[in-house]
């Protein structure tokens, strides 16, 4: 099997069936990436070319980028600079002011709690098809949770790491540069250089979690923001609201089901009844929408497993047993049969071919 076939398998579930939206993100979220790539001795033109973007596009406070291309930009940056933790350190060095309108709106809030609430309120206007929230855990701790929910964006590790780094820097505006959270969670598997994550955040880091999150004590929410400015905050909110007149992106029910399935795969094959309950949708509605999109529920789960498995197999540090667990197989033999069904290759042969073509 040639690499072109493998690549097409890796993206087919995102385009076969379902009305896939094309969400966007403001270009300010990539401010400084050109210089960061250059410091890593990367080829800026090649990286941007592979992502389908021009270096001149990044940094603008109002220009909209495709979120898929944005995530691909950081995945390609990590691959071609051979810095697997590219997104981690980019986010760690990111100045919240460079985030543009939403950054200044948060920084000019009265307290840290207001800043995070402002971020949550305005983030859909900054970045579409993504979820961000502040929630209280049963243990009394607070969590700033973030994840891309666009189901067609399979590889999004670098985005998760840089995004939590950006959120960390916002909190440190109020708490000081030495502040550290209680824990940090990532939805992707543990990478080889995971100890760098604990150094970057100054806290224990856990992987293969249900979502990405910074865990902290809620008392810090009362801290005053040093650059509080109600007039500036109002002005930034108004600017973002005007930008929100752009094309609205709404997920189909099929997209929402696919995202929910992805999050639950490590628990095994998620029953459709569980997904329906989580999404608060009638079972009949889900089945009808999947039928309209030419899918059965089992096919959607199979496609989601396949896409994730083909992404994970490129990560040398993951054993095949770990990958099998992450995509919902309790036994390695069942995973091996699935890989042969998808690609005609054994997991070992597939990994060898992928690594030979992708380096």
Quick structural overview:
This protein has helices at residues 3-15, 33-39, 44-51, 67-81, 86-92, 101-107, 112-126, 157-175, 195-201, 230-243, 253-264, 272-279, 283-292, 297-312, 320-326, 332-343, 347-358, and strands spanning 24-26, 64-66, 130-136, 142-148, 183-185, 205-206, 212-216. The protein has 359 residues and is of the alpha+beta class.
Describe, in plain words, how this protein is organized in 3D.
The protein has helices at 3-15, 33-39, 44-51, 67-81, 86-92, 101-107, 112-126, 157-175, 195-201, 230-243, 253-264, 272-279, 283-292, 297-312, 320-326, 332-343, 347-358, and strands spanning 24-26, 64-66, 130-136, 142-148, 183-185, 205-206, 212-216. It has 359 residues and is of the alpha+beta class. 53% of the residues lie in helices and 8% in strands. It has two domains: 86-243, no CATH class; 253-358, Arc Repressor Mutant, subunit A (Orthogonal Bundle), CATH 1.10.10.60. The model is unreliable at 1-20 (pLDDT under 50). Helix 3 (44-51) runs antiparallel to helix 4, helix 5 (86-92) runs parallel beside helix 8 (157-175) and helix 6 (101-107) runs antiparallel to helix 10 (230-243).
């Amino acid at each position: 099997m040639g690499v072109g076939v493998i690549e097409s398998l890796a993206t087919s579930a995102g385009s076969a069936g379902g009305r896939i939206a094309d969400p966007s993100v403001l270009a300010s979220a990539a401010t400084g990436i050109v210089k960061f790539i250059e410091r890593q001795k990367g080829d800026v033109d090649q990286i941007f070319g592979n992502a389908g973007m021009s270096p001149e596009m990044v940094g603008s406070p109002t220009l909209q980028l495709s979120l898929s291309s944005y995530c691909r930009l950081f995945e390609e940056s990590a691959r071609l600079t051979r810095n697997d933790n590219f997104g981690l350190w980019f986010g760690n060095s990111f100045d919240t002011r460079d985030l543009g309108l939403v950054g200044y709106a948060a920084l000019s809030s009265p307290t840290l709690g207001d800043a995070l609430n402002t971020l949550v309120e305005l983030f859909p206007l900054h970045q579409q098809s993504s979820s961000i929230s502040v929630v209280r855990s049963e243990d009394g701790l607070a969590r700033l949770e973030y994840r891309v929910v666009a189901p067609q964006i399979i590889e999004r590790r670098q985005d998760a790491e840089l995004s939590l780094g950006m959120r960390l820097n916002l909190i440190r505006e109020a708490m000081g540069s030495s502040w550290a959270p209680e824990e940090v969670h990532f939805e992707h598997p543990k990478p080889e250089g995971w100890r760098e994550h604990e150094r970057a955040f100054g806290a224990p880091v856990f992987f293969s979690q249900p979502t990405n999150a910074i865990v902290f004590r809620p008392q810090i929410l009362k801290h005053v923001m040093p650059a509080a400015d109600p007039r500036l905050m109002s002005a930034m909110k108004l600017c973002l609201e005007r930008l929100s007149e752009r094309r609205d992106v709404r997920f189909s029910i099929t997209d929402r089901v696919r995202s929910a399935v992805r999050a639950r795969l490590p628990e095994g094959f998620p029953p459709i009844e569980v997904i329906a309950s989580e999404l608060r949708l009638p079972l009949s509605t889900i089945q009808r929408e999947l039928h309209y999109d030419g899918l059965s529920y089992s096919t959607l789960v199979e496609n989601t497993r396949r896409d994730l498995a083909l992404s994970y197999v490129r990560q040398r540090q993951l054993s095949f047993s770990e990958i099998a667990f992450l995509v919902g197989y309790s036994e390695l033999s069942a995973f091996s049969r699935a890989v042969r069904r998808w690609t005609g290759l054994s997991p070992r042969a597939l990994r060898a071919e992928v690594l030979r073509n992708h380096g």
